[in-house]
Amino acid sequence: MEPLASRIRPTTLKDFVGQAHLVGRNKPLRTAIEGKHLFSFILWGPPGTGKTTIARIYAKAVNARIYELSAVSAGKDDIKAIVNEPDTLLDQRPKVLFLDEIHRFNKAQQDYLLPFVESGKLTLIGATTENPSFEVISALLSRCRVFVLESLSEKNLVKIIERAKIKVPKDALQWLINLANGDARIAITALENTKRFYGSVTVDTLKSAFEHMFIRFDKKGEEHYDTISAYIKSLRAGDVDAAIYYLARMLAGGEDPKFIARRMIIFASEDIGLAQPTALVVANAVFNAVDVIGMPEAQINLAHGTTYLALAAKDRSAYDAYFEALDDVKKTGNISIPFKIRNAPTKLMKELNYGKGYEKYDKTGYLPEKLKGKKYLKRKGK
């Protein structure tokens, strides 16, 4: 049987709920849909807020053939197949490609897609939960309008739940809305599973159904922060097995691999630092590999980098030195910089003794007078 969320999905703007700033009267997407304007755009917003529904409504309105791909599993061959699908005398409609999770396409895949969007062979609708300015190449981004979707309000969710025509007591409705957290897909799927498994919808039956549905990695919630914390602490302790486990858990749960790679770069300087300076080089190389290669192959690069960082010697002295210095900056403000190390680009500055007495490799110290003799970098055994 077709899932409930699919059965009640609206097919026109008349029945669409939420995103009034985009599809309300005289708003940009409504104007485009009603005017049948053909153009590429990206829908950026949280899960379950209507991105797929808007794409389908738009394609229908402009009388286009819509092809739906997920960037998680699709590749160049899928795009090529769509582009090369011949028109017929009976069907010469424009081709709209709805690419879900477009941020998962790596640079090479996006470069391949670009000329088809430029030429108009494909009209692209990208959907993403990540900031497209970070995840979509500039050339492709410049050819698309970006529309930002918002989490659905409680009022919106109530309207969508009512469409399911399943009896829900007030306390159960509020519990469901709280757990859905603005995501209509979660609300409707939980509602459907609860009704199917338990016959009636109550707080208790919702809890039971919800626990079975969502034993998963929540990229926006507590699980996200707990798992990345466990990963970093495992690296810090040199526990390779634990670090690899938490890496696998994050990737299997759908965590953005670039997020993990960024944390590796931070860790390389924060925790390894001067003990093994090449760690920063390795971490940056892992990030570049993730960016260029993409998943699923990039998980190998992440595992390589994780193992290296976990096994590396640790030294937080550079990190500690900086934040101790920053604390002094906040406490003392812009205290006077010694004249001998000031810049002296003009005659007046030289007359005022800017730069006077400076000699290369001088060991007398360059800190402001108030902080004279202060030692920020404290390395063990040095």
UniProtKB/TrEMBL annotation:
UniProt feature coiled coil, ranges? none
Q: Which InterPro entries match?
A: AAA+_ATPase, AAA_assoc_2, AAA_ATPase_RarA/MGS1/WRNIP1, ATPase_AAA_core, DNA_pol3_clamp-load_cplx_C, MgsA_C, P-loop_NTPase
User: What residue stretch is flagged as signal peptide?
Assistant: none
**Which processes are annotated in GO (biological process)?**
DNA synthesis involved in DNA repair; DNA-templated DNA replication
* Record key words, sorted: ATP-binding, DNA replication, Nucleotide-binding
Family matches, as SMART domains: AAA
On whether Phosphoprotein is a keyword of this UniProt record, the answer is: no
According to the entry, every stretch annotated as the AAA+ ATPase domain falls at 37-152
Q: Which Gene3D superfamilies match?
A: 1.10.8.60, 1.20.272.10, DNA polymerase III clamp loader subunits, C-terminal domain, P-loop containing nucleotide triphosphate hydrolases
Which CDD domains does this one have?
AAA, HLD_clamp_RarA
Highest rank taxon of the organism: Bacteria
Q: Which PANTHER family match?
A: ATPASE WRNIP1, WERNER HELICASE-INTERACTING PROTEIN 1 FAMILY MEMBER
Q: What does this protein do?
A: DNA-dependent ATPase that plays important roles in cellular responses to stalled DNA replication processes.
The family note in this entry says: Belongs to the AAA ATPase family. RarA/MGS1/WRNIP1 subfamily.
What is the designated name of this protein?
A: AAA family ATPase
Species of origin reads Candidatus Taylorbacteria bacterium RIFCSPHIGHO2_12_FULL_45_16
